[in-house]
Amino acid sequence: MLVTGVVQGVGFRPFVYALARELGLSGEVGNTPAGVVAEVEGSDAAVAAFARRVLSDAPPLAVVSTVTEEYVSPVGGTEFVILDSTGGPGRTLVAPDVATCADCLAEFADPSDRRYRHPFISCTNCGPRFTIITGLPYDRPATTMAGFPLCPDCAREYADPDDRRFHAQPIACPACGPRLQLVQPGLETEYDEDALAVAHGLLVNGGILAVKGLGGFHLVCDAGDQAVVTTLRKRKDRGDKPFAVMAADLDAARRIAWIDAAEEELLTGIQHPIVLLRRKAGAAVAEAVAPGNPDLGVMLPYTPIHQLLFDQPGPCVLVMTSGNLSGEPIVTDDDEALSRLVGLADAWLGHDRPIHVPCDDSVVRIVDKIELPVRRSRGYAPFPIDLPVPVRPALAVGGDLKNTFCLGDGQYAWLSAHVGDMDDLATLEAFERAEQHLEELTGVRPEVLVTDKHPSYRSRQWAQLNAAGRPVIGVQHHHAHVASVMAEHRHQGDVIGFAFDGTGYGDDGAVWGGEVLLADYDGFERVAHLKYVPLPGGDAGVRNPCRMALSHLWAAGLAWDPRLPSVRACAKAELQLLWAQLERDIACAPTSSMGRLFDAVSSLAGVCHRAGYEAQAAIELEGLASEDRGAYEFAITGEEIDPAPVLAGVVRDVLAGVEPGVVSARFHRALAEVMVTLAERVRAGRGLSTVALSGGVFVNRVLLSATTAALAAAGFTVLRHRRVPATDAGLALGQLAVAARVRS
Ligand SMILES: [Zn+2]
Ligand SMILES: [Zn+2]
Ligand SMILES: [Zn+2]
């Protein structure tokens, strides 16, 4: 039997060994470049049970792609043995980092266990992987645990096929493992339990602690303490962007947020991502944690060090935000943390197990009981995505916002962990390091580079600079979005693609973002788009939703009524300047951006006029949406989706004193309804009935849920993101599928 997939370094051989022995089978199991190969011998019933349970009972980290069975002649063996790995070229799929498992937690809490309260407890099923692997083959010397030789007790466990730490590379114990240390400026460094005691005291007393996690440092403080959270916000230069929190356990999480069964499963699963949850009224979380946001990003402790932060009386909910200044990559190195986080943290809780590559926390939202990844990073990367079409060895560099990149070869694509916004040198360097590391782990040697078509994207410039004679292929932004959701669903054939986002470079040079594309992997036809309006001043227009509102009013021929919140939000000089800018067409790029339409409506409804972080106006508008069943109405003229009647309806309602939540609901419904109308037109004309939804706008739960329901009710099959983000963080997968596909 040959088993392929993520089956190496995840405890697959010991699992096969235990299963065979339980069923009374003899034979052997080994790692080969092709995958895990097992030969078993015994009764027909036992062999059949073995074949079934290899799939159904596989270890939690394993992802089985294929199982091939073949009959071989019995050899009359009596034993079952684990063979040494046979080397040679091949593809090992490296597992992601995994939250501490229940077995380890039980030992961790047992005073008689030799790993009682050990900050680095791990086993075959849990602990760091991706972030500590420096090369292949995956063996202790090729990890950042290389500097910690196993003590005799650990070595015995490592060598024993019956032990749950058999061949687990990151294992350690208090005798041989890394040590915790606490550094405070001007004071002696503390170690182990002393380090913890000082760290804990600091949290209780309103301090800010830098804590080394799996993929980087976090900045940590008491989430219930408005003063310290406000201080952290100022120090990080964070604007109003929400902080994530870590709750001590599920009960503590339930006290601050509503958690359904799907969300509970996600919070407690092997990945332990940040889950965006509905905040409970009166939750004991400072307003400064997520100002103006109805959601809270919540996660549970996923390393032993996190467990230790909560095991003394003290805060049950901690702010846990990535250790960096806003926009910069997360800090991973202890020395670097001391210098780069100076002025941000009061003390540093670190250790001497190096982090080889950074990996930010993943963020997931549940919509209609289905996962919607917002950031796919720790716990997911570098799990491969199996492709619907084989690809050449290629690197797709993604986009410039929320960058991730993607390596592909044959049937697999490896989407990187979150890299960040490519607007500073540090992020560009982080991109290069992450790219080299992923090449190292996957063995992919790209023969072609794929980029966005935006001429000034740094990701594209990087590819052109580093092409070394290899072809560089550009893929239109929204085509890549649609291809991304198609690829993760392994979809073949044409779709009606809705690509709604803030910004993407259009083939006509305009800023696209409200696009309806008839698409497959080969190409696309732009069948409809939001009508162009001026984007006054580029980035300035993005940062100031009130200006976008006024631009939309201007384009729709609607008056700037001084009673409107957007007009009131602007000083007289700003209004005059904007009017002149629009009338004379100065620095006004045409845009069909759906994100900007959300900004405009958010401002008109009086919700948000100045955006301190990306999509703030849209997020706050969504958060307010009521249960109102009314809807505004878009006009469709040829290929243009005209929002003028929607804006007229919004203005009418706002001037009549209608609540912002009702305006929000009616706007969301209008969008869902016009999408059904457009999809029906394409279906009537082209006979297509599969709809693909992608782009950052579809992180919006209200819109995604309403749209999916309305399209399904109209008889469409709906493809929406469930494995990679709908935002530009999923772009690279689509780029790869479009440009590196092997044409048959
Ligand atoms: Zn474990
Ligand atoms: Zn040990
Ligand atoms: Zn986009």
TrEMBL record:
Quick one: a GO biological-process term for this protein? protein maturation
Which chemical reaction does it catalyze? an acyl phosphate + H2O = a carboxylate + phosphate + H(+); C-terminal L-cysteinyl-[HypE protein] + carbamoyl phosphate + ATP + H2O = C-terminal S-carboxamide-L-cysteinyl-[HypE protein] + AMP + phosphate + diphosphate + H(+)
Active site (record annotation): R13, N31
Q: What is its EC number?
A: 6.2.-.-
Start and end of every YrdC-like domain? Answer: 193-379
* Entry-linked Gene3D superfamilies: 3.30.110.120, 3.30.420.360, 3.30.420.40, 3.90.870.50
The pathway it acts in is: Protein modification; [NiFe] hydrogenase maturation
What the entry lists under Pfam families is as follows: Acylphosphatase, HypF_C, HypF_C_2, Sua5_yciO_yrdC, zf-HYPF
Molecular function terms from GO: acylphosphatase activity; carboxyl- or carbamoyltransferase activity; double-stranded RNA binding; ligase activity; zinc ion binding
* Alphabetically ordered keywords of this record: Hydrolase, Ligase, Metal-binding, Zinc, Zinc-finger
- Domain Acylphosphatase-like span(s) in chain numbering: 1-84
Entry-linked NCBIfam families: hypF
Q: Which family does it belong to?
A: Belongs to the carbamoyltransferase HypF family.
The entry's protein name is Carbamoyltransferase
